Structures are given as structure tokens and as C-alpha cells.
Fold this sequence. Notes:
Elements: H1 9-20, H2 24-29, H3 31-55, E1 58-63, E2 83-89, E3 97-102, E4 107-113, H4 118-130, H5 133-139, H6 142-148, H7 170-173, E5 178-184, H8 186-190, H9 194-204, H10 206-216
Antiparallel strand pairs: 1-2, 2-3, 3-4, 4-5
Amino acid sequence: MGNNITISKEVFDYLNELKNNNNRDWFEAHKPEFKKHQSEVKAFLEAVKLNLNHHDEIEKMKLFRIYRDVRFSKDKTPYKNHFAGFFSRLGAHLRGGYYIHIKPGESFLAAGFWAPNKEDLFRIRKEFEMDADEFREVINQKKLKTVWGELQGDEVKTAPKGFDKEHPDIDLIRKKQFVFMHNLSDKEVLSPSFLDEVDESYKAIRPYFDLMSDILTTNLNGESILE
């Protein structure tokens, strides 16, 4: 796409150092480095958003804070040793979001629905109960499957309340999340073509988003529920 916005090896070096010195004294002493690398990642995320807006509509971009919420965690280290960003699609018309996770040895992209509200979750399950053929067709498309693999997400153990545990599509109905993940090597993240790779990966998930948006903006008769 003709630009040179990249993630530098210095970002990884800093995150590795932070992992080994995860305390307030070290962090405060290296605050200028943090600010520099955070700005670099933010510029990269802005470029990702710009690309996304050529083929999707992004309502907002979020760069997650480096500070950990340790209140309910056994791990009391104060800082995350990764950078992460999220792009939410536009309003009630377009659903779902894109995620990017930058961490040495554990970087990945993700896309889908992490925490659908109970109304959306019920609507999705009713769709599968009625007919899951189109959904299976979409998630098994060759390009999508090559990039993103299998649908992932937490699920209930047997069947949600009110659904038949013997239903032929119970594997889908049981799900509470509808997420795809694409793992990235350090070499990929640090490559000059990483920005393009992210965009191509996000393009490959689009048929899934289009179908889910259609499901979540209509009733079971296929009639729009948008105002």
C-alpha cells in the first residue's frame, strides 16, 4: 500500500525488558522509552484503521493501556508485556471487531465476537437452531479457513437453556463466543510487509462478518430490526 509503517525490533526488545523488570521503579525509569514505543504502535494501529476503512467501516480504534488490573488476579505484576489494539465496526449496522496483539513469541490477530450480549447470543443460537448451513458454508470458505482456521470460543457444557442437546448443530449452539485467531511469528510482525499482511488477513474474515451482521440486524424471518 505504499507506506513504510512497521513495528520495529526495538518494540520487541522493550517488551522483553519489561517482562524481566515488571516493577514500578524500572517502568518509571524507562518511561520515555515506553512513550516512544507506544507512539510507534499507535501509529501502526492508525495505519491499520486507515486500511480497514478502505473496505470496511470502523467506528473507533482503541489502544489498550499497559497497566494491568491486578485486583482479581493472582499475578500482581503491574504491567502487561504486550501492546494490543481493537477496531470496532460501525454501530448497530455492522457488528464485531478486529484485534491485534503484539508480544514477542506470542503475537496474533483475532476477529469476531468476544462477549455478545444475551440478546445477540440468543439470536445467533436461534439462527443455528433454524439452519446453520449458510454459516458453515461461510466459515469453511477456502481463503477464510487458510488464514483463520477453525471457529473458536468458550462454550456451555451441554446445551443452553431451551435448546435441544441432541440438535445436529449443537456444536455451534453451545458457543458463547464466536472468534477466529491467526497466530503470527516474530518474523512476520517485524517484516516490512506486516501492515499489508494484517489488512489481507482482515479482508479474509469479511464474509463471516457480513453474514453475522445480517443475522444480528434481522429477525428469524429475515426482516430488518434496525430503526
